[in-house]
Amino acid sequence: MQERDVYPVAGSQPVATVSDAMDRFGVADGIRPLWRGAVLSGPAFTVWTRPGDNKGLHAAFEEIRRGEVLVVNGGGDSTRALIGELVAQKAKALQVGGIVLDGAARDVEELEALGVPVFARAVTPAGPWKTGPFRVGCTIAVGGVPVSPGDWVVGDGDGVAVVPRGEVEVVVARVGELIAGEAERRAANQALVPRG
Questions:
Q1: Binding site annotation covers 106?
Q2: Which CATH architecture has domain 15-190?
Q3: 84 labeled binding residue
Q4: Is 107 marked within a binding site?
Q5: In a structure prediction context, what are the per-residue pLDDT tens digits for the chain, which is 196 residues long?
Q6: Where are the beta strands (DSSP E) in the chain?
């Protein structure tokens, strides 16, 4: 069985700073957290599915590992929810690191109660089809950003960023430098004295 990357060094870095560390690339357009306080960080497990169809997500749960983030290209469809409470329960039981959907979800209050971090393009009460087709473990696009299996995905209240797996260590180091610089600027701002 092939080993998959985990990124304990990456932690839960702020999405805005991660994007800054990549010259402000890598942010998935239009993908937002579905509940306040949702955060995720981990290697991507990818699914490409027909819009409004979640058969591929169920197939992914047969392979996904603890800590991996399920990242789904659902064609940006907002008319059918790819996940809801029951799928989130499965994700929680398998200790999935979170779910990112270029598509829709439902059962937002239940997702929050379960504590499963879900980021999506839309919310709708309409349920999914389950007929396929789909692809698992391929390079996809989410919010206009390419995502390959094993890329580092991080999400917080600002949205989602994707770091190519070969650049994780460099980006994490750069994030550390940026955070230190921001702390210095923050201290300087707090030392300002009003004129007059």
A1: yes
A2: 3-Layer(bba) Sandwich (3.50)
A3: yes
A4: yes
A5: 345 554 444 456 899 999 999 999 999 999 999 999 999 999 999 999 999 999 999 999 999 999 999 999 999 999 999 999 999 999 999 999 999 999 999 999 999 999 999 999 999 999 999 999 999 999 999 999 999 999 999 999 999 999 999 999 999 999 989 988 888 888 888 989 999 8
A6: 32-33, 40-49, 69-73, 81-83, 98-105, 118-123, 134-136, 140-142, 145-147, 152-156, 159-163
